Amino acid sequence: MDLQLSGKTALVTGASAGIGRGIARALAAEGVRLAVTARRRDRLEALARETGATLAIVEADFMQEGAPQRIAQAALEALGGVDILVNNAGGSRAFTLESTEAQWEEAMTLNFTRQRQLAHALLGQMMSRKWGRIVNITGKSEPEGINGAFAAKAAMHAWAKGLSREVGRHDITVNCIPPGRIHSEQILRNYKPEYRQWQAEHEIPMGRYGEPEDIAHLVCYLVSPLAAYITGAVIPVDGGLRRYQF
Length: 246
What we know:
The longest helix has 29 residues. Strands 3-2-1-4-5-6 form a 6-stranded parallel sheet, with helices on both faces. The mean pLDDT is 93. The protein is globular, with a radius of gyration of 17 Å. Helix 1 crosses helix 8 and helix 4 packs parallel to helix 5. By secondary structure, it is α/β, with parallel strands linked by helices. It contains 8 helices and 6 strands, in the order βαβαβαβαβαβααα. It starts with 8 loop residues before the first strand and ends in a 24-residue tail after the last helix.
């Protein structure tokens, strides 16, 4: 299927590893011109070599004040315009009842506020061209405990749905993808091999953990002109792990 993406431009955050890296690789293969950002420049340079694509590399600490505006400006200068934003940066934050306000603030900033700020920094030029795609890589809706990222991702879902209703008239879509268990540095760090094997066999209908490409394929479709009537959606990619019916 021709996704009609050749020549489009995209900014992908958190592109140095895992899901973000997989998304960047898939978009590059579709002919999208990319700006990629993360803290580890060496990983982004390796990504450029692997894809054979000319990538605009924006080395940035997402948590710094004003980072979204700087990232947006660098991407716009490098690409001439940003058609597609993939908000992928973020990280799990397991908390207890004793977690501090500073910890909560950091979790919300990393997993929601910066993504919202980056989207709003790019919306004006999307609206002026009457076309745009925003995809947010979020998180599950079945929190088994207190986690700052879960709360932030829930905020992301609510914000994205509201935003989709405001910008649809400009041919801009806004969607969210909550991943299931996708192989990544974070998964390998947080879950032992024995648990991963047990969960794959007993809790995931497809019988395996996913790969970054499983997310990337859906992203490529959602950001394409072919997905023009899909907006405000939350679409899990989890091999059937989640048990909610919507």
